Amino acid sequence: MHSDSVRLKLSELLDANARFDLAARGTTNHCPMALVALAEMGASPDRLQAFFDMWEREYALSAPPVDATISRNDWKRHVGEREAFGALRLCFLDWIVDAGAVPVITAVLQAVPFAPATQAFHSLIRLAYGIEAGHAGEIAAGLASLISSHLPIDVSLDKNPRAESADAGFDHAARALSGTVFAGSSITARLRAVASDVRFGTAVLAPPASAALLDDLARATIAAYWRKPDFTLLHTVTATRAARIVFAELHDSLVEQLLPGLWVALSAAYAMIGRPANTETSFPNIAVNWSELCQMAVASDDDHVIKMTYTCLCEDRRQPSPLYLASAARLFEPSKA
């Protein structure tokens, strides 16, 4: 974010986004996440406003009125209640104003099974963007989404062999359920179908013994996405970065408890879409640089293109790989995602 005017406009629009429902026409509410990514890639206040106006006109659904009050001592009774999103958001927002964001995030994640697959990973991603923007309302919305749409994948890893690497673990899950067509018109529905398949409990291995598991997951997810530019795999890349942002706010002992849940959710995504092609990684001649790609993303109205470009930019800065620039550049080719 390059100026106070951008920060002020972003905050104004994130506040205004509270009038939108968790769902949108044919999708979920990507607007606040895309706005943060746009701002970080250099969008002007006018461009942020234009994207918000486009989203409101073409995708947004009005949030239903919140008629009930949920107390901070009572929110756990509403896990999995989609209609409680608005009341949960207000509950968490009030709590954050009183106690600060990190204590509330910690309390919520400690209290319920970690479910990063919720809303096709968008609940976790929205929470991360809220943290990145320092916006209490969006942090509250991310937590409310995680709780109201809660999609845990209940798998015990205690007796399962340990994966030698992230790539090997994902490949094992994909092989075990190879050929299965999971019913559902959305990523969430198909992830739910994977979670209910009794074979998945043995298909998913325990995560590799690595002191840098998130880095291993980041390498594995971008490599798989490069080999197979599947829409679900795109979400594994953005979700892994989101987990990094959220986990950075938490105590190491809590992160250690949450990591297996992330591993299981990502493994479910791989089991759902099947194995990416096992081919040599080769790269085309990339004729654009990051500055040009960011300009192209800022001009786009495609929320997934915006967020994926930003994710690739940030991950490449942290752990450089030609896969990030190549994957981001491919987003702007015809018929690519």
UniProtKB/TrEMBL annotation:
InterPro entries: Questin_oxidase-like. GO terms for molecular function: oxidoreductase activity. Keywords: Oxidoreductase. This is DUF4243 domain-containing protein. It comes from Paraburkholderia phenazinium.
